[in-house]
Amino acid sequence: MSDNPVVAVVGATGAVGREMLKTLEQRNFPARQVIALASARSAGSKVLFKDQEITVDELGKDSFKGVDLAIFSAGGATSEKFAPIAVESGCVVVDNSNAWRMDKNVPLVVPEVNPEALDGHRGIIANPNCSTIQMVVVLKPLHDAGTIKRVIVSTYQAVSGSGQKAVDELETQVRNLFSMKEIEPKVYPYQIAFNCLPHIDVFLENDYTMEEMKMVNETKKIMGSDQVRVTATTVRVPVFYGHCESVNIETEKKITPQEARAILSQAPGITVLDNPAEKIYPMPLFAAGEDDTFVGRIREDETIANGLNLWIVADNIRKGAALNTVQISELLVQKNLLRV
Ligand code: NAP
Ligand code: 12T
């Protein structure tokens, strides 16, 4: 492609969509024009991009004429219906929803882990789940060093993962509790303020949640290995931005904590924060707004021969969503893959 691409952001008014516009701007993505799309609810409203107000248009079948790259962040149902329409109109789609991730014709990409998966794409590329992204960024260099056999992960996920309404709900509940008003849960089934909910996305027949099974299945697909066994418990905590994960791994070859720190310090997209004596460890409060994935509390699992425990934190809206999507888009430009 000789000209810079025309980019459409679908879901531009949402928590992820607004961060997407900010990230495209901050990283100076080479867009000839940026178009903002959302539902009829916010058609006509304005979003900011490079100090300019862009008027939001209602998403429709004709929205993608003249568009080269369509970034979707408007829910699975919207992606399911409109991503094929966008591809039909000549767009390449990078999709943030769960709709296409496990389709065998759709690459599921974390640029630090499997950029080669983009080659030969058929028009739709999927951005993985936020919890999967930050975990595989850390697992990949350790897998290359010692071959991971098994992963046990528990997550502590921020409310921003479920959209702007959930951010507002936590804030309202905290305010109401301090002024002795009634709490009325809407986004979540129970009060989230001062609580933890071991329930993210829907429950499945095996009694795991969909969020847990995304971590299991997406990790295998991105790491390109069915041999990595993963089991997950995903928990919503009353934090606004930043997901945390307690991750236990078992490897074929022993990796000492010192070796793991050295490997991870050299790996792309990772900052090691691990000095217990100085109380240095990753926390969501400090990861929020940052691009890197932070890892610390690296220590030996003393119950098995080759095991490590790790604590991984990242901004779920940035690396977990908008940043990873923009990094994929940058790779598409660099690799000249914006035409199918
Ligand atoms: P959000 O704050 O609720 O925003 C939703 C956005 O989608 C809004 O812009 C909304 O527009 C738009 N939208 C909703 N229904 C639509 C429709 N029928 N047609 C067109 N636009 C529609 O949610 P969010 O947190 O930004 O999440 C958006 C998407 O990103 C979801 O698919 C979610 O699964 C995904 N996501 C992925 C990750 C990840 O793990 N990678 C993390 C978070 C979210 P209006 O203003 O018109 O309502
Ligand atoms: N339900 O991209 O609620 O599949 O935190 C991401 C986040 C789904 C997804 C959440 C979710 C996704 C959430």
Helix and strand topology:
Blueprint: E1 6-10, H1 15-26, E2 33-38, E3 46-49, E4 52-55, E5 57-58, E6 69-72, H2 76-88, E7 92-95, E8 124-126, H3 130-146, E9 148-157, H4 164-178, H5 210-223, E10 229-236, E11 243-251, H6 257-266, E12 270-272, H7 284-287, E13 293-300, E14 307-314, H8 318-334
Parallel strand pairs: 1-2, 1-6, 2-5, 6-7, 7-8, 9-10, 12-13
Antiparallel strand pairs: 3-4, 9-11, 11-14, 13-14
Helix pairs in contact: 1-8, 3-5, 3-8
What is the SS-derived class?
A: alpha/beta
Name the overall outline: globular
- Extract low-pLDDT stretches: none
CATH superfamily of the largest domain, please?
Dihydrodipicolinate Reductase, domain 2
Distance between the termini: 11 Å
As for the CATH topology of the largest domain, it is Dihydrodipicolinate Reductase, domain 2
Q: Briefly, what CATH class of the largest domain?
A: Alpha Beta
Number of domains as seen in the coordinates: 2
Alpha carbon gyration radius: 20 Å
Order of helices and strands: EHEEEEEHEEHEHHEEHEHEEH
Q: Widest sheet: strand order? A: 5-2-1-6-7-8
Question: Which percent range describes the beta-strand content?
Answer: 15-25%
Number of helices: 8
